[in-house]
Amino acid sequence: MKALRIRNLQKTYAGGVQALRGIDLEVEEGDFFALLGPNGAGKSTTIGIVCSLVNKSGGSVEVFGHDQDLAPEMVKSCIGYVPQEFNFNPFEPVGEIVINQAGYYGLPRAEARRRAERCLRQLELWDKREKQARSLSGGMKRRLMIARALVHRPRLLILDEPTAGVDIEIRLSMWEFLRGINADGITIILTTHYLEEAESLCRNIAIINNGQIAERAEMREMLRRLHQQDVILDVVDPVETLPEIPGYRLKRLDACMLEAEVTAGRGLNDLFEGLSAAGIQVLSMRNKQNRLEQLFLDMVHHHQEGSA
Amino acid sequence: MRYWTAFSTIVIKEVLRFSRIWVQTVLPPAITTALYFVIFGTLIGSQLGEMDGLRYVDFIVPGLILMAVISNSYANVVSSFYQAKFQRNVEELLIAPIPPWVVLWGYVAGGVARGVMVGLLVTLVSMIFSDFRIHSIGITLAVFVLTSVLFSLAGFINAIFANSFDDIAIIPTFVLTPLTYLGGVFYSISMLPEFWQQVSLANPVLYMINAFRYGLLGVSDIPVGIAVHIILGFIAVLFFVALYLLKKGIGIKS
User: Fold this and answer.
1) Touching check for A81 and chain B: CB below 8 Å?
2) Is residue B2 a part of any domain in this protein?
């Protein structure tokens, strides 16, 4: 079953700005899906329309088979939404924010309290339940919005830049949490600027550019299309002069750190042999986290050229 | 049942909101009214003769109670809904499976809750200074609640159009307060020259205050039936305007 089916979605804002120019998109139930695109590409507008926060100009949206125009309340019941910016009342206590959201979805007060407790414990916010939301740290505020979005047990969770501005430790724990609820069956769609995040979490991605879908594919397949990967090498002794190794381009990042561009399918044996021959002993190696960024930039660039 | 739960959640949230800041929301009207009674009722009023056959301090009781109801019902909804827009927590309601009429009645009920609470407090204060009595409990309660509903709806519409905190202060300052003060809180329109009596009849607040005065004291410048119908008419018009704006997402959706 399709968790989300968007057909020819269009949006023209009052000022005449055409934000969406006919988006078609499908997301399977249970998927972990990333919606990527440069600023102003139409990601947030698309999500806003799906979540009933923005009025569409044309097209259709279906969530788990429910048409947004014919059964808006069924659509809303299926969705949990975590926005990019904090959108709770900062003066309200944390617990009340989550309980009230459950109430808006029709859960009686006693059940709303039980659900809120479970969600707040899951997101490690239970001991903050009586604090005003404004007193929480940035990471806690993000977790509060996730708890609020999950309290009515949505089948589809939509997150708009969920880890923007949070430190790496919180980001990693949030990834772990999202992987867990996805494994429990919740379909997740996220937009993110951290492409590493999409690469690490998502099985499928779509790239939006200029109000249109520029690319829609499986993450593995997308990454396979890369013609090149970069690896970082930590070496034992400082390197003054870089050796010439045919088929590889080496760069010196600092005295004991090198970067090597490796063409897809070439392998690394020749690289290591060349380095050994030059007397360079490699201590450790890791991939440079730029693979998706590179692909993303290539595709956006290619799409812009195609549009022009 | 689901709608009822959503409605009651909005009302509980609203009541908790204004109760948490009771020093700003509930206490000031009680103090202001006590000052009105001391200055206009006791000090100046004692120098005045009777009005419509009543002591002046007794005459101003209904107007002062209703003035508190009007300003607090309006203020509650306009500030709460505008803040929800400003802080974007109105999105909590927009994404939830609640029809617009439930959201509207939830906010209106919150405004009525504050209007009634402040109105009762002002009534208690008035009992200290005046010879408080109720001529018709039915009319008193009906006008009390309907007026609160009407101004809660008006506050909601103001909040929908407001784009800044200035916008939520302009209507109360430049429209609501003059209409209330010129609506016969402190005087009977029979004291005015014929021309100004006719002008006063265009002021909707005059009908509410006189109907409420009839409920409490049994005197009114206006036939009570007409007054109640006018209040109901205003409620119907404002309700459908507010509902239309909310459905269209004016001021809250792009």
Assistant:
1) yes
2) no
